[in-house]
Amino acid sequence: MSESVADVVVVGAGAIGASSAFQLASAGHRVTLVEALDGPAEGSTGRSFASIRGQWADELNVELSWRSIRAYRDFPAVHGIDVGYRPSGYLLLVSEPAWAAQLEAVELQRAHGVPVEVLPFAAAQERTPFETAGLGGTTWGPADGVVDPHLASSAYVELARARGAQVCYRSPVREIDPHADGGWSVRAGDRTIRTQYLVNAAGGWSGEVARLAGLDVPVVHSRRNVYSSAPGALDRAVPMTVDFTSGVYLRSDGSRLLFGGARPDEVDGYNVHVDWSWMEALLEAGTRRFPWLVDVPLDRAGCWAGTYENTPDHHGIVGPAPAAPTWINACGFSGHGMMQAPEIGRLVAEQITTGAITSVDASALRLERFTEARATRPVELVF
Ligand SMILES: Cc1cc2nc3c(=O)[nH]c(=O)nc-3n(C[C@H](O)[C@H](O)[C@H](O)COP(=O)(O)OP(=O)(O)OC[C@H]3O[C@@H](n4cnc5c(N)ncnc54)[C@H](O)[C@@H]3O)c2cc1C
Questions:
Q1: Domain check: are 236 and 274 in the same one?
Q2: Dihedral angle computed from the Cα positions of residues 362, 364, 365 and 370, in that order, rounded to the nearest 10 degrees
Q3: Total-model pTM
Q4: Which residues, given as ranges, of the chain have pLDDT below 70?
């Protein structure tokens, strides 16, 4: 059993924990990053669809995503590392009832500098062929696209290590004891770490980690499936395309087509077995919008499932626990953690370094919103 001291222990080496460790180490904190599994990105991060977009309908999410996309874009210039950002674009097929709100969202996005275009159907169909029934219009984000979750997480871990962070894999946190001075003793694998701050970046396991310290953090696992065609099924690139009417989304990955969509009656809990019955239902819905799906050969071995780390309102939790100011949550991103990880790491470091987050108004992500009388943020379509 070894013992060590840190300013901050970050629990979890997914995209959020890795980015947080990097930002904290860059700010001069002594960081220890502990991960239960063998390396970075082995939780939700490594099972992600990896699509990133600045197209959101509220100011905070637009800012968090757009700043993060630019961080991924600028990674090679700033750090000399390519993390797989590709501006392959993001096409939203929006239903008639939602179209007026979508146009307002476009204005908001543009006001924040996000490149976004309203495309006529014909121009959108050149990117991804689709039927137009029930659609009010389409929008296109040319700077949106994909990032590589493994490359991004590994890069952040290595950059953190280069700035002095200790990185401990195969070190599951099993005990967390509070100290009278407000710090924590963290038992992780065969080591005990005495730390002032703890960052809970354990993804879908964040509720469990919080319970070790007697805290309540409402995050649950919820399975999502990614279905894949056989390689060679596509002879052209298909950008990330989301059909708001059916919830089906798809994009190409090389010559494969990947597609998915949330099952409304999915039962909460850790489950990474592919749901084949949902694939049939999804294909039926998807084929109405994208008739060419009928001809796409499937590759069962190429499919996978992972879990979203869901909160009750499907938005992340960032900031201190009300009962324990040195406990910093950075979890529960409910399917959009990849596209916001760079900026969330920066906010975590700002919180710990300065005692508050003031560079953006992130108050809507406070844990307290779940116990306050009414939700403080609009709920938008989450897919
Ligand atoms: C199928 C699928 C598709 C998705 N598509 C997208 C997308 O297109 N765009 C997007 O932005 N997001 C997407 N997401 C969501 C995104 O992947 C997550 O929001 C993000 O990866 C969360 O990162 P994280 O670091 O919070 O969690 P994780 O990656 O789960 O990392 C948490 C880490 O904590 C570790 N851990 C847990 N308990 C302990 C413990 N007790 N001790 C030590 N370590 C512990 C775990 O092993 C894990 O490595 C998708 C997710 C899935 C599953």
A1: yes
A2: 160
A3: 0.96
A4: 373-383
